[in-house]
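## retry 2 of 3
previous attempt timed out at serialization; input unchanged, resubmitting
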Amino acid sequence: MTVKSKKRLLDLANVALLAAIGLTVGSLWLWPVDISSPAPTKTNANQIATVQTPQAKPLSDYSIIHERDWRRPLQDAKVVVKAPPKKDPPKLKFTLVGTVLEPDFQYGFFRNKGGQTRIVRVGQTVDGAVVVEIKPDSAVVKKDGFEIEMEVKKK
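## retry succeeded, writing output
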């Protein structure tokens, strides 16, 4: 780069700087910013125009700024209580093999894993499960808070 080209580049930089300064001053001249106090209201000859300024708060109102631990978040985190995970219904160790429905009695035939069959009516228990209802080809038993509907397996 020659000396002449360096001078030309320096002149262009100066022109750009002067243009930026001119645009800044010109914009402030065209759109002035009013930083003065509000204009006084119209008054009669006997009244004096007064401008009301807001009163400053006492320093004691700002004491919490000094008392607060700035390493902690501004708000306490919201505690989200998650519902306990849903339990799966318990596995029953018996099956329903048949039902008998008559006007005077209702019975269910339940067979355990050992092959023994028990005849049970509503309100009685089978391996810790209470029989709640007996329907045609199904029965409802309650165990560990779960109501489980069992159906007779078709052969």
